[in-house]
Design a protein that fits this description.
The structure holds 2 protein chains of 2 kinds.
Chain A lengths: L1 H7 L1 H41 L2 E4 L19 H9 L4 E16 L2 E10 L14 E4 L8 E5 H7 L6 E7 L5 E12 L4 H6 E5 H7 L8 E6 L5 H15 L4 E4 L4 H39 L1 H9 L4 H37 L1 E2 L14 E2 L6 H27 L2 H7 L1
Parallel strand pairs in A: 3-8, 5-7
Antiparallel strand pairs in A: 1-9, 1-10, 2-3, 2-6, 2-9, 4-7, 5-8, 6-7, 11-12
Helix pairs in contact in A: 1-10, 2-8, 2-10, 2-11, 8-11, 9-12, 10-11
Chain B lengths: L18 E2 L2 E2 H10 L5 E12 L2 E12 L3 E6 L8 E5 L2 E5 L7 E3 L24 H4 E11 L2 E10 L8 E7 L5 E7 L5 E13 L2 E11 L6 E11 L10 H4 L2
Antiparallel strand pairs in B: 1-2, 3-4, 3-15, 4-5, 5-6, 6-7, 7-8, 9-10, 10-11, 11-12, 12-13, 13-14, 14-15
Classes of the chains: A alpha+beta, B mainly beta.
Amino acid sequence: MAWRNLARNPRRTGLSALSVAIAGLSISFLFAFSDGMMNDFRQNVRTFVSGDIRIRHPDYEAHELKQPLHLAVSPLSEVLPLLEGVEGVRAALPRVNLGLRVDHGEKSYNLKGLGVDFARETALMNPARYLHQGRLPQAGSREVLISASLARELNLGVGDTITTLARTRGRGLNAMTFTISGTAVFPLMAQNKRLMVHPLDLTQRLARLGDSAQEVLLTLERPAMAPQLAHTISKLFEKLGYSLAVLPHTQIGIAALYTQIVETMFAVIALVFFLLGSAIIINTTLMVIHERTQEIGTLTALGATESTVVRVFFLESLLISIIGALVGVGLGTGVAAWFSVVGMDFSTMMEGISVEFSPVIYPQITWRSTLGTLGYGVLVGSAMSYFSSRRAARVSPTQALRAI
Amino acid sequence: MKKRHWFLSLAFLFPAGIWAQGLSVPQILERVESNQVFSTARLEGVVVVNDEWGRRETAFRSYSQGRERSLVEFTSGESQGQRILRTRGDLYLYFPEAAEVVRLQGAALSESILDSDVSYEDIGGDKGLNQRYTGELVGSEVVDGRDCWVIRLTTRERGVAYPRQEIWVDKELFLTRFAKYYALSGRLLKEFRVLEVMMVSGRTLPSRSIIQDKLRRNSSTEIRLNKVELDLRLPATTFSLGNLTW
């Protein structure tokens, strides 16, 4: 009977299914999009800020804005082999972040310099994947990789030279001239405007750092083990007399705070969409049941029991919800799948904004965005139908027939 | 603040019309400047920076010719080999590992040298104080046991680093013993004090002086002069850009 009812009024059935489908489609796509954004954010924070574990001088963070390069991880020649010998550590990556200035023509540019060991960085940043033109700088050579848009702004290309000024460990100023070995498109907007990546040894020379780095990031065999391994490494440093702050990514102030803010933001957006989607389904279901109060009255007048009425309407609604949810989630997943390949480009919108999101977001299809949303659509649609039809079935036939 | 040739002398002016011991304020300032502007000079000394990161010493050697040209070379520490050339209002930095000379201009001139309390604009400037400031004698005070005139200076032109100054000029030596440098808003930016003096060729120079950037916390920079030669012969190319990279 429930099946027959579906075909009796195709417009009504279609409207009910459509409400579930729209809610399913939007929630499914939103989940895929937000999961993609969160994944991108976590990846960027891990790659450029925290690693799985970050090691710095204990006083560096308190003075970070002043770029106190003398508060460094030192001596690297001892610390790196030590870290790489710890079980569970995949790679130890020394890095130097420093402010640079480039005078070009009549203009001065304040840029960000990043000194990395290109060979080691295949374990985390993998700079080769960002290459746009040319090649990566070679250790020991005075070469630099600069962002493609910065190169365009400075009207420079591969093979040209650029002189950069930087503060040194002793708070003096130093300058070096580098040859641009390659240009790159980095994942963050701010980096694309002003990042220059140098070989670590040259950065150490530029900033007079000697055998030290501003920080060492660790990647682990099992990132989830970061808190335990950070504790182990801390104890090891303590035992050997090194004064260094070892923090798992979960405890790195800015990274943890950003992650928390972004997760909360997406939870709120998801809740709003959930409520909106539910409101559409509930409204449509209630309207349909209300419209059919006369039909319910006729059925009860003909002798149908309350449970029979509820069962018929519930089954009908369940079928509509399943069809609507399948169509909606299918469409939402399809759209998300398409964008997960081609990406959603927000670069124009994010122009000038400095956040840890990439300008191109790739939605990520997850259990939450597919099966979770499917279950949600079916549950809300059929549950609302159950309660409404139960209430309608309790109305006496005379009242029901008079109600319309 | 735009200034003199030897590495670090901040303060002077050309006040108008008020007389002290038979001298007008412009005359007092002229006498002060005659202690500081040399036909040629060669100085050797040390910059000692004390700040929240500790104490850093950098030796320097400097050459100057009149008011317009000076060359400073750092001879120790991380900055060894770096040079600062000032010639006719332009300021250039030479770094041994850079293929080109860096010309400093605009906001970059207000950056500090060696992260000290002295900025690049403190060693720049071609005009005399009387051309840039109006002076007013506001009284006399004893500074470090020396009787001084207190002269207030107000800028005549736009774009100077210190639109207002107060200087305490030693009445006997015509030396700026103490000075305060202010922003247009009246905010105190820097203080300069002479700790010790030396006599060279009949002129009195500060052999030890201290500068404090009041916008930095717990920071001071001491300039010590160890060797001073005045009126010596300098090669004509000393202050040329080509000579910077010799």
